[in-house]
């Protein structure tokens, strides 16, 4: 719990505290804590070194490397103070090292929890989980910023509302794409790479109720023509273009197969892979399917959350129609 100033400037006898910590941890030259500089950039770098050393020190205590007495004392302290957020992700390592710390941890946000067991769990984090979430005492957005080595203008920030929200959402989506590229390139380790490749060839289970199928789709990414489109809400799904429905896939399952299954369409009503010949008839099937999907969402067949969202969409559309009619009359 030593304050940064005590660590950087304090002494025990004639020995600086920073030197004691540097030796205890066997830190390399670029990891060593230094005396505070008058330059702001160096101050920030030194603060990161201090926090990194603090995290390493905690781990050594818990593994018993500082002796059984220190370990027992610290474990007892943690048991008596369960509110203490002890997990601290070390952000100065490689992308693989950071991911290894994240895997298996629980993100807390808005009194909720979300466990990150796989790389896909991490890739599918919602905007809220990324912006507001924490793993222990470390912000999820800080983890992603560090893992990708983002520049200031690219960084995900704590901006949830207001005019800068859209720019922050764009930063989140750009980071998601960069993260996928790192996974595919093997920069997060061979296990993460294999895990993601397995996901891409995975089939969506189209059995069960409409709500169960929708839950498997929600939060997933549609891939099509070297592009991606994320389905977070029923509105996202309803707004799918003809191309996304025709060519898109979630994992190894085509979007058209998913819609055909959700709606239980007959053979002549089904959306098929027809892009040129008989295109108009197929486009009509797509639009009819869109109307049916809206009706099912409104009836609650896709679950209460989708139903409420659909009700809000219709209310908004009705208000917009009324405003338009008033403007036309004027």
Give the SSE map:
Layout: H1 4-9, E1 11-12, E2 15-16, H2 17-25, H3 40-62, H4 68-80, H5 95-102, E3 106-109, E4 112-115, H6 119-123, H7 127-132, E5 134-135, E6 138-139, H8 140-148, H9 165-184, H10 190-200, H11 210-217, E7 221-224, E8 227-230, H12 234-238, H13 242-247, E9 249-250, E10 253-254, H14 255-263, H15 279-298, H16 304-329
Antiparallel strand pairs: 1-2, 3-4, 5-6, 7-8, 9-10
Helix pairs in contact: 5-8, 8-9, 14-15, 15-16
Structural account:
- The radius of gyration is 26 Å and the shape is elongated.
- Strands 1-2 form a two-stranded antiparallel ribbon. Strands 3-4 form a two-stranded antiparallel sheet.
- A hairpin with a 2-residue loop joins strand 5 (134-135) and strand 6 (138-139).
- The protein is built from 16 helices and 10 strands.
- With 330 residues, the protein is mainly alpha-helical.
- The protein has helices at residues 4-9, 17-25, 40-62, 68-80, 95-102, 119-123, 127-132, 140-148, 165-184, 190-200, 210-217, 234-238, 242-247, 255-263, 279-298, 304-329, and strands at residues 11-12, 15-16, 106-109, 112-115, 134-135, 138-139, 221-224, 227-230, 249-250, 253-254.
- Helix 14 (255-263) packs across helix 15 (279-298) and helix 15 crosses helix 16.
- 56% of the residues lie in helices and 8% in strands.
């Amino acid at each position: 719990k030593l304050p940064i100033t005590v660590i950087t400037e304090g002494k025990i006898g004639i020995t600086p505290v920073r030197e004691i910590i540097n030796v205890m941890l066997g830190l390399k030259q670029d990891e060593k804590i230094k005396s505070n500089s008058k330059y702001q950039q160096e101050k920030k770098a030194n603060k990161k070194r201090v926090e990194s050393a603090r995290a390493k020190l905690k781990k050594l205590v818990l593994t018993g490397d500082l002796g059984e007495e220190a370990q027992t004392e610290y474990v007892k302290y943690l048991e008596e103070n369960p509110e203490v957020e002890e997990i601290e992700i070390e952000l100065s390592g490689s992308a693989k090292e950071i991911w290894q710390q994240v895997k298996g941890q629980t993100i807390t946000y808005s009194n909720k929890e979300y466990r990150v067991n796989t790389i896909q769990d991490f890739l599918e984090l919602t905007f809220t989980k990324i912006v507001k979430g924490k793993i222990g005492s470390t912000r999820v957005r800080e983890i992603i910023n560090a893992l990708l080595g983002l520049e200031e203008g690219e960084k995900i920030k704590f901006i949830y509302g207001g005019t800068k929200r859209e720019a922050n959402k764009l930063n989140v989506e750009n980071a998601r794409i960069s993260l996928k590229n790192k996974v595919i390139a093997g920069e997060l380790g061979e296990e993460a790479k294999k895990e993601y490749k397995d996901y891409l060839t995975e089939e969506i289970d189209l059995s069960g109720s409409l709500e169960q199928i929708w839950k498997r789709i929600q939060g997933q990414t549609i891939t099509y023509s070297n592009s991606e489109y994320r389905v977070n809400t029923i509105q996202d799904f309803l707004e799918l273009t003809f191309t996304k429905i025709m060519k898109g896939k979630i994992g190894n399952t085509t979007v058209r197969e998913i819609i055909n299954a959700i709606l239980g369409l007959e053979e002549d009503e089904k959306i098929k892979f027809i892009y040129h010949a008989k295109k108009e008839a197929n486009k009509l099937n797509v639009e009819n399917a869109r109307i049916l999907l809206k009706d099912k969402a409104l009836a609650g067949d896709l679950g209460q959350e989708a139903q409420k969202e659909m009700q809000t969409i219709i209310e908004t559309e009705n208000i917009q129609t009324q405003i338009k009619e008033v403007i036309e009359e004027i």
